[in-house]
Amino acid sequence: MTHTIHVATAQPYDVHVGHGAVDRLADAVAGADKVAILHPAVLAERAEQLASSLAAETLLIALPPGEQAKTTAVLDSCWGELAAAGFTRSDAVVGLGGGATTDLAGFVAGTWLRGVRYVSVPTTLLAMVDAAVGGKTGINLPAGKNLVGAFWEPSAVLADLDFLTTLPTDDLRGGLAEMAKHGFIADPRTLELFEEDPAALLEPGSDALAEAVRRSMEVKAGVVAGDLRERTSAGAAVGRELLNYGHTLAHAIERNEGYAMSHGYAVSIGAQFAALLSHNLGHADADFVARHRAVFSGVGLPLTYLAGVWDELRATMNLDKKTRGGALRFVLLDDVARPFIAEAPDEAVLRETYAELTA
User: Fold this and answer.
1) Buried b (16+ CB within 10 A) or exposed e, 232-270
2) What pLDDT, in 10s, does the model give residues 271-320?
3) Is 16 within 8 Å of 39 (Cβ atoms)?
């Protein structure tokens, strides 16, 4: 059984989430003469199975694992394969894999002939609740993550929960970090699911996880429908930037780790920093900070990071996409679902807040 979430953007599309959702792929690419399925090598057999279910001529493009796929060299290689296969504006691109795969595949689709149909088939929990919905695509540069990209919405998202049954527990935790974030920024019920039975959220077939995934995707769909291209927010009027809660520090940590750390793990640490910063700026109370620790640690996510690296992390944060005119900006919360933008917080407070996070 699947649940359908309608994303009401300028180019509306449906997200199908549930067991067996991938069975809708043939309908999603109907009318295309050629379909390229971009996938990590580990999913080659699954990609072949999906290709055999389609009426169109298929092109399978194997990608390097994880963030290694999001490079200019891989992007250029994909363009070359589409050119050699004669892909036209009536054809389609499918991204089958985790968030790095769907980020790259969406960018390939959005830039090939100025845009062809794109279908996202996320296979990890993190990809389902984060990268699959919203139309953000992109690649990394040595200077930072996702510095080159474009908004290109999928024509459909097929989030099949059956893919989760083979995921290692650590991969599930990475997705749960984004889901907890969605709870704090917009959905108290999600936080209750984390608090009532955190162990159930680590069970791929549990009803609790299915509900939490659906609610998380609904949160993201609602936010992006109101602000697809991420306008600059101010004060308490926070648009799509709301989804970047915890990400300013998280992206800096990922770069410091050479992108070897799970995005979700970095977001967990980044969310702790954001809660502490809000408290230290006189906004959130101590109970709110403690709730962050309990929710994230309850499913085994990290709360601290390395001492002695603040200067490096701070320099990387200058490249954060929320920065305006050289001023660093943070999405913070007064409480659950009560966001605000902190413009250029005092540097001493930032340093002191980070010191509270160090192991």
Assistant:
1) ebeeeebbbbbbbbbbbbbbbbbbbeebebbbbbbbbbb
2) 999 999 999 999 999 999 999 999 999 999 999 999 999 999 999 998 87
3) no
Indicate the length of the chain as a whole number: 359
Say which amino acid occupies 203.
E
* Per annotation, catalytic residue among 34, 215, 220, 329: 220
How high is the mean pLDDT of the chain? 93
Task: Quote helix, strand, coil % in the chain, to nearest 5.
Answer: 50, 20, 30
Q: Is 321 a catalytic residue?
A: no
Sign of CA dihedral 275, 280, 283, 287: positive
Q: Give the Cα separation of 1 and 266 in Å (integer).
A: 33
Name beta bridge partners: 120: 95, 157
User: What gap in Å lies between CA 345 and CA 354, rounded to an integer?
Assistant: 13
Closest CA to 66 of 174, 151, 213: 174
Question: Which pTM was predicted?
Answer: 0.89
Annotated catalytic, 6?
Answer: no
